[in-house]
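Recall that a protein's primary structure is simply its ordered list of amino acids. Everything else, from secondary elements to tertiary packing, is in principle encoded there. The following example makes that idea concrete.
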Amino acid sequence: MADLSAVVAQLKAERAKLDKAIEALSGFAGKSSGAGRGPRRLSSAARERIAAAQRARWAKFKAKKSR
């Protein structure tokens, strides 16, 4: 019976370690990185600013290329 009680003690120690690991990882599960929230939407003003910046980049690129 001594072996059985030693095994039980070892299993309880392992369970305690696993419980601590689960608690530590559970803290990260609640903090979402933003994934799964749906698509991000830009305002039309923001889209226009991005488009204007891209047009400027292309114009600069084409100006260098034509030289």
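The chain has a mean pLDDT of 88. The helical segments are 2-29, 44-66.
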